[in-house]
Design a protein that fits this description.
By secondary structure, the chain is of the alpha+beta class. It folds into 4 domains: 127 residues, Beta Polymerase, domain 2 (2-Layer Sandwich); 73 residues, Hydrophobic Seed Protein, CATH 1.10.110.30; 147 residues, Hypothetical protein af1432; 32 residues, no CATH class. Helix content is 50%, strand content 9%. The strands form 3 sheets. Strands 3-4-5-2-1-8-9 form a 7-stranded mixed beta sheet. The longest helix is centred in the last third of the chain and has 19 residues. This is Multifunctional CCA protein. It comes from Pelomonas dachongensis. Its cofactor is Mg(2+); Ni(2+).
């Protein structure tokens, strides 16, 4: 590489190495170069919004050191300046958190102008500079990091800054795609509850997910919910999702499963009669707002509507269990049905003192599905036709055969 510019490993790769974690992605910054100099050295330009190049040998992306300034509201309102005179410290200053604002040279020496190593040692998430306030996505990113690094606390001055950002309306400028990107990643972290705790503390949850904010302080019957508070229950369910290694579809469904409890009339508390119908409607509302993918959207509505029935299914007879399979479209959508049961187990175990409870309903209903899948639909239909059955009569014959399979099991 030409001697007049220098390349540094920056950001998450440096942070994760210092934390003793496997390094997933490596980001590089070049200091002291112009686009023309990099192209002359064999780099290939690929960036549209700002100068990014592919290394001629490793084909990894490298970015020119740059500064940025706020020009308009929201995520896209930035102007970038990349030039040979931009220093590494200036480039690192525009990053969000001190633990992400470190670099490493080719000898392994860490460049840490903003105290990232100290904050790693102290387990603190802290903004690098007041420029943090220029990008509202950073509130979501910080909350996601809190879910990943669950033993880190958020610096009080950073919480105060985020609250000021929310009060200034910055969060209102967020676009759906970026919100979903960060929420979905946070849901998949080791302790998803931390993301929502941090968003609440910053005042951002009320803006982004008022349906979730509304659950906090709402009581539930203590016999079923020793933790009582519906919001606390939700956080416990999300952490059970992580413990049970649930996929994103299940985690999002769990986020939405009890939203209707936030709209229960006060005179009906602590019971939540028909909250499932309200939860389904609110889940649909949240999914539309943040343009949630269809697989997550559909499962969330199904779980909201049916989770109570699944919980109660241990006391159902064969006919009621068959109706449950029918409502869930289990034969055409067996994977979605399995994810419904996964979400219901997370819900059942997301309760104070009941985290390790057995949940036999999940296996029972999976066994029921397997038993009914053994029914030879073609043979049943052919026999019904031979008897002169038509249309709905054939459907009823299939239903009877499936019921017999359940009863035999």
């Amino acid at each position: 590489m030409a001697a007049h510019f220098k390349t540094y490993l920056v950001g998450g790769a440096v942070r994760d190495r210092l934390l003793g974690l496997p390094v997933q992605d490596r980001d590089w910054v070049v200091v002291g170069a112009s686009p023309q100099a990099l192209i002359a050295a064999g780099y290939q330009a690929v960036g549209k919004d700002f100068p990014v190049f592919l290394h001629p040998h490793t084909h990894e992306e490298v970015a020119l050191a740059r500064t940025e300034r706020k020009t308009a509201a929201g995520y896209h309102g930035f102007a970038f300046h990349a030039a040979p005179d931009v220093t590494l410290e200036q480039d690192l200053a525009r990053r969000d958190l001190t633990i992400n604002a470190m670099a490493e040279d080719d000898t392994g020496q860490v460049v840490d102008p903003y105290g990232g190593q100290r904050d790693i040692a102290d387990r603190v998430l802290r903004h690098v500079s007041p420029a943090f306030a220029e990008d509202p996505v950073r509130i979501l990113r910080l909350a996601r990091f809190a879910a990943r690094f669950a033993d880190f606390t958020v610096a009080p001055e950073t919480v105060a800054l985020m609250r000021d950002m929310v009060a200034a309306g910055e969060v209102d400028a967020l676009v759906a795609e970026r919100v979903w990107q960060e929420l979905s990643r946070g849901l998949m972290e080791a302790k998803p509850s931390r993301m929502f705790e941090v968003l609440r503390e910053a005042g951002a949850l009320q803006k982004l997910l008022p349906e979730v904010e509304a659950l906090f302080g709402v009581p539930q019957p203590e016999a079923h919910h020793p933790e009582i508070d519906t919001g606390i229950h939700l956080l416990m369910v999300l952490d059970q999702c992580a413990r049970l290694d649930a996929p994103l579809t299940v985690r999002y469904a769990c986020l939405c499963h009890d939203l209707g409890k936030g709209t229960t009339r006060k005179e009906e508390l602590p019971r939540h009669i028909a909250h499932e119908v309200r939860s389904e409607k609110l889940a649909r509302q949240v999914s539309a707002r943040w343009r949630v993918p269809n697989d997550c959207r559909e499962l969330a509505e199904l779980v909201a509507r049916e989770h109570t029935h699944v919980h109660q299914s241990g006391g159902f007879g064969a006919e009621a269990r068959l109706r449950l399979l029918e409502r869930c479209d289990a034969w055409r959508r067996p994977q979605r049905f399995a994810e419904l049961l996964w979400a219901c187990e997370c819900d059942a175990r997301g309760r104070l003192g009941l985290e390790g409870r057995d949940y036999p309903q999940r296996q029972q209903l999976l066994d029921d599905l397997a038993a009914t899948q053994q029914v030879d639909l073609a043979a049943v239909s052919a026999a019904a036709l031979a008897r002169g059955a038509q249309g709905p009569d054939i459907g009823r014959a299939v239903q009877r055969a499936r019921l017999q399979a359940l009863q035999a099991g």
